[in-house]
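Working notes for the structural subgroup meeting. M.R. asked for a predicted model of this chain before we commit to crystallization trials. I am recording the input and output together here so anyone reviewing the notebook later can reproduce the run.

Input as submitted:
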Amino acid sequence: MCLEKLYHLQKKFSKHEQICWSYQRLQQFITYKAKLAGIHIRYVNPRLTSKRCPSCGKINNVKGRTYTCRCGFHHHRDVVGAMNILHAPEIL
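Returned structure, recorded in token form:
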């Protein structure tokens, strides 16, 4: 299982504290349950996961929910992020 290592949510607290806390708690809960089930968690860097084309690797600015690249690849932005997270190197 792959999760983004959310550095900025762990160190920064502001008006978004409750939102940040909920993402962090969700990640902790997923990690806890995965360990109970014997599932390895792999953490990856979240940088550019929704901007990098999974087909050609080009960085694109994303407008709206649909990701479109000049190479012809297009998909929902969340799917692009998930594909890039799956193939990203693990942070040790």
